[in-house]
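Before relying on records like the one below, remember that each one covers exactly one chain. Contacts with other chains, cofactors or solvent are not represented anywhere in the record.
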Amino acid sequence: TRKILGVGGEDDDGEVHRSKISQVLGNEIKFAVREPLGLRVWQLVSAVMFSGVAIMALAFPDQLYEAVFDEESVSSKTPIRLYGGALLSISLIMWNALYTAEKVIIRWSLLTEACYFAVQFLVTTVSLVESSRIATGAVLLLVSRALFILISIYYYYQVGRRPKKV
C-alpha cells in the first residue's frame, strides 16, 4: 500500500518521497539543493553589491562615473540612471534567489550574474581601449569583475552537480 501511494518509497535517485500529494504540489525533496560552502554568503554579497551600485547610479551618477573613469563630467546623466534602474531590477532577482531553496532559481540567478559581469567586463575593456587611457578605477573594476565571473560560474556548476550517492 505504501508503494502504491508513493509514501516512503525510494526513487531511482535514492530520494524518499513523503506522498504523491507533496510531489504534485511541488514540494518534492528532489529540487532542494545541497548548498556548496559559502553560496548564501556570495548571494548576500551580490544582492548588497547590486543594490548599492544601483542606488549610487540612480542618486549620484556623476560620482559613480568619476570613480570608474577618472573623468569629472559626464555629458548626460540619463544613461547612468538607466544603468542604475537595470541594476536595481537585477538586484531584486538576487534578493529573491537568496531566500529560495530551489536549485533552478539559484542557478539562473548565478548565470544572470555571471553574464552581467561578463558584459560589463567587455564594455569597460572596449571603453578603455577606445579612450586609450587607463584609469585606476576601471582597471580595479575589470579585475573585480573577472573575479566575480569566476566565483559565479564556480557556484553555478557546484549547485548543478548531482549529489554523490552514499
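DSSP finds seven helices and no strands in the chain.
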